[in-house]
Amino acid sequence: MLQPLPLHPDGSPTVDDGNFRYTAFAVRPEAKTAAMRPGGRREDEVIIGGFARFIGYDLVSLDWYRGDKTFLTIYWQPTEQAPPPQDYSVYIHLLDANGALIMSWDGEPLRGAYHTRWWEPGESLLDYRVLELPADLPPGPASLRIGLYDPIENRRLPVVIDGAAGGDGLTIDNRITVH
To answer: CB–CB of 118/155 below 8 Å?
Structure first.
């Protein structure tokens, strides 16, 4: 397992010196297949793109404040299917009470340190995310939706929930309030 280490005084794991961007990770090989216990664990089986099992998530708080940061951990486990032949990215969407997109974050899983084409069955993968909230974010109730997509073709991967088609994304929490 790779866990990002804070390098910057503000606690973020990335430092940019103007020439290079640095991220440090703690490596814990024994954790590669450790059991995962997310706070927001799914009881149903959620498979995205045929190769990524969504186990659950941890969210620091359901109360989000404009201009602040919040932290999200997504728990992945590769399925028994062979790894995909290419890399995919994660999208995270914040939706208002009517389902309209108000904010999004995108990027490779595990900060690009462990591409999806390298994922192996049985691994426990923690995807740590820092979600920066703009000062002009509209206040009110919101929900968080995630999924995987092909960044080259901008095509979202299908979600299957307990063997049934579930669209191209998964709402993981609908109890967020933006203040």
So the answer is: no
C-alpha 95/C-alpha 23 separation (Å) is 30
Name the strand (E) or helix (H) holding 15. Answer: strand 14-16
CB 126 within 8 A of CB 3: yes
pTM of the model: 0.82
Q: Which residue in this structure is represented by tokens 């108000």? A: 102
What does CATH list as the number for 38-178? Answer: 2.70.50.60
Q: Are 159 and 169 in contact (CB under 8 A)?
A: yes
Total number of residues shown for the chain: 179
The β-bridge partners of 78 are 52
Complete DSSP assignment for 27-69: E-GGGGG-----TEEEEEEEEETTTEEEEEEEES-SEE-TT-E
3-state class (DSSP) for residue 118: helix
Q: In sequence order, what are the residues at sequence separation of 6 or more whose Cβ sits closer than 8 angstroms to the Cβ of residue 163? A: 45
Please say whether the beta carbons of 148 and 79 come within 8 A.
no
- Segment 78-104, tens digit of pLDDT: 999 878 989 999 999 999 999 999 999
Do 108 and 90 touch, CB atoms closer than 8 A?
A: yes
Q: Which residue has the tokens 């820092």?
A: 130
